[in-house]
Amino acid sequence: MTSFDNRETAFENKFAHDAETQFKITARRNKLLGQWAAEKMGLTPEETTAYATSVVQADFEEAGDEDVVRKLLGDLTSAGVEIDDAMIRAALEDKMVEARRQFIEPA
After folding, report:
1. What is the CATH classification number for the domain harbouring 58?
2. Can you give the residue range of the structural domain that contains 23?
3. How many domains does the structure of the chain reveal?
4. Is 71 helix (H, G, I), strand (E, B) or coil?
5. Neighbours of 11 (CB within 10 A)
6. pLDDT for res 14
7. For residue 5, what pLDDT is reported?
8. What does the pLDDT average to over 90-101?
9. What's the chain's average pLDDT?
């Protein structure tokens, strides 16, 4: 029975590690997305840092990416940037790829 318990514990540990890794990658993606949007809005470096943090925090409002897309679309539109939902979702995908790459291959 000990072997089974060890195997179960190993699977639980792997699941927890995978969930933590995905959380970190998603947070990095949201930070990159915030930096991308800040550049489009012409924010200063200090404003960019604060804005990227606010995008990361926006992801805690609800499950999925809709809260982040809604925030970016609203903020970019309010700043006079001509953008649509599809452009934001494309950036979301691009930044996810970049975040995974950065996480796997740290500088």
Report:
1. 1.10.790.20
2. 2-104
3. 1
4. helix
5. 10
6. 83
7. 74
8. 96
9. 91
Q: Which two tokens stand for residue 103?
A: 């996480």
d(Cα 59, Cα 94) in Å, to the nearest integer?
A: 17
Q: Are 32 and 45 in contact (CB under 8 A)?
A: no
Instruction: Taking the CA atoms of 91, 92, 95 and 96 in sequence, report the sign of the dihedral they define.
Output: negative
Closest CA to 40 of 86, 93, 88, 98: 88
Cα Rg for the chain, rounded, in angstroms? 17
Three-class SS of 7-59 = HHHHHHHHHHHHHHHHHHHHHHHHHHHHHHHHHHHCCCHHHHHHHHHHHHHHC
pLDDT at 2: 77
Query: How much is the average pLDDT of 38-55?
Result: 96
